[in-house]
Amino acid sequence: MLVTQEFTVKAEGKTILNDLHLDFGPGIHIIMGPNGIGKSTLAHALMGNPKYTVSGAAQLDGKDILALEPHERARAGLFVSFQNPTPIAGISNFQFVKESLIQQEKMTNSMSDITQVLNDYKDYSDVFGLPSDFHKKQLNVEASGGEKKKNEIIQMLLSKPKVSILDEPDSGLDIDSINQLSKQLKTFALENDNRTVIIITHYEKLIDSLSPDTVTILRKDKVEKGDVELAYKVFEDGFGE
Amino acid sequence: MALVNSAKFKIGDLPKILKHGFRNNLMTHRFKKETMALSVAEYLPSLNIAFEKLHKYKNTNINSFLNKEVITPNNNRTQFHDHVSEAQPIDFHIRDGAVIQGFNAKIKHAFKVHDLYSSVSTMQKYQSFFEPNNDISDLGFLNTIMPLAIKMSNYKRENLVLKYDVEANDLHCDTIVIDVGKNSKLDLTELIGDSGSHILNVFYILRENSSLTLNRNITNSNTYINSKVIQEPGSRFAMSCTTGDIDFSYQNIDVDSYHNCHTYIDNRNALTGDRINNFVVNINHLGRESFSNIDSKTIVDDNSINYFKGNIFIDKEAENINAHMLNKNLQISKKAKVYTEPTLDILNKEVVCSHGCTISNIDENELYYLQTKGLDKTQSINILKDAFLK
Questions:
Q1: A89 three-state secondary structure
Q2: Which pLDDT does position A241 carry in this prediction?
Q3: Residue B45: pLDDT band by 50, 70, 90 thresholds?
């Protein structure tokens, strides 16, 4: 579903990622790596953040996405959850989700669609233990780190992207919320055979509970790929750098 | 403005025209109120002020207003009652010293109207408001011999929609008093537009424990408005002002707040093209235990210009005041200009006071965040602009 070849990312003239060959099929995948190795950079370079200069190739469902604007990549089915979601005052969480889904042609502006999506949003808010009026709150404003992360996951669950890259979705979440996150991610990935969920995390309990299909370790000069045992090896031995 | 039949002149030339007695005919013969008209008749032609050189108009681009050419039509002007298809029911139309009830208006028993058709003794009650300011607002006294007044009774709750009428390209000058009775509550909407020019002096008197919520909507016009608000003890004044598609707008809002008053002034503008907007607000805390908040936000795009000047004055005796002022500007185009001058003038120590101003561009991180969720650049910018004005 998501493939990169000779994928190289630079920012301000400095190479951050070099010649990456990655291949993520349907299922759940984990990306790990030492601090500063470029895990978040990988997510946002794939999403089209203009601050990065990218070369090589990246394909989503066989379609080259590097020439696309970020919104076109989103509409093609790519979703990135932010490690620090950007606060925007003046627009509510639900207003934003509604606009996002309408532009991705995943809902219409009809009252029935709006009501349905609002109910779904409230249901997910409830599942994640968010306040009952969370949909009315301003987007990522006056919310805790954990609440912002949950909001990102709700956006993903409602937009049902083909490929999701979640950047440390567990940080800021309490134990119960991580259990719920794991449950929702597994359900989301398994309910459709064509969904790819890539999670950047180092949290052992989450990795354990997700039973990922693959684990990818980004290192300074190489990429190591394996199954969940690779993650356990890292937990035991560290990254060794 | 029915000064003469079909005249064409620049607004800035009005004082010179007045020197030649341009105005006397209307004031003395038509209405036969020579005594009352005398002070105005004497004063206005003596105006000999180079408005554009006044310090208060620095950075306001006032010449854009003064150079505006207006055309007073002949006497076959549209009559008030011709406005029969009003999308928003208008209670009162105001033009040239007269107040006419709107076509769809409901009878408002809570109000007494004093206009140029009222008796001299009735109108004299508000004659003291014809005090010159020695600035452009004095031209607002032109078209009548005394202020028109809308007086609301005590202990009433009402809403009112006023429209300041003008012919396209004409100039409307008026001085208006809105007098809200004790313990009354008034929701007032003011509509200003009609593709013409306006010079208005509007006085709002809030009697003890009264409340005035004022929504002022300025569109499609060339407008100069001087607003004086007098808040008696215990009163609440909340003003919400928006402009759209204006050529030029200058608003001066001067509030005298006495004991235990609440004052809220919100101003929202989205300027495009060559539009010029000026918003000057002064809150004078003259009594104790009061609260005020000024919140002015403007988006400037293309070649538009926004000027904000705000001052909070807190008198020596006005203790326990809580006063705040914020001016935020979102600059979309590099060619657009923003001037902002927030000041505080505090004469005692028992106050909580804050002020701030910002001029920012579209935040690249916010833009990227929205784009990652499927909104294109234009949609994202529009969302950020809407969000900014909230």
A1: strand
A2: 65
A3: low
What DSSP designation does B143 have? T
Q: Do A100 and B373 make contact, defined as CB atoms within 8 angstroms? A: yes
Residue of B nearest to A49 (CA): B368
pTM of the model: 0.86
DSSP for B311-327, please give it: EEEE-TT--SEEEEEEE
Within a domain: B378: no
Query: Strand B185-192 to strand B211-219: parallel, antiparallel, or no bridges (unpaired)?
Result: parallel
**Segments making up each domain of chain A, as ranges:** 2-237
Q: pLDDT tens digit string along B295-327? A: 999 999 999 999 999 999 999 999 999 999 999
Note the ipTM here.
0.96
Q: What CATH number was assigned to the domain covering residues A2-237?
A: 3.40.50.300
Q: Is residue B124 part of a domain?
A: yes
- Dig out the tokens for A170 from the structure: 């567990």
Question: Whose CA is closest to B203, among B182, B172, B225?
Answer: B225
Query: Both tokens of residue A220?
Result: 């300074």
Higher per-residue confidence, B76 vs B150: B150
Distances (CA, A) of B79 to B65, B93, B99, B198, B249: 26, 10, 12, 18, 26
pLDDT at B28: 40
Give me the domain span that covers residue B186: 7-362
Please check the confidence at residue B27 and state whether its pLDDT lies above 50. no
Q: Which residues of B touch A (CB under 8 A)?
A: 364-366, 368-377, 379-380, 383-384, 386-390
What tokens does B177 get?
């008093």
- What are the b/e assignments for A174-189, b being 16+ CB within 10 Å? eeebbebbbebbbebb
- Say how many domains are in chain B: 1
- Beta-bridged to residue B203, according to DSSP, are B177, B228
Does the residue B2 lie in any domain? Answer: no
For an interface test with A, the pick among B328, B373, B385, B390 (most A C-beta atoms closer than 10 Å) comes out as: B373
Would residue B312 count as lying in a domain?
yes
In this prediction, residues B194-209 reach a mean pLDDT of 93
Q: What is the DSSP letter of A13?
A: T
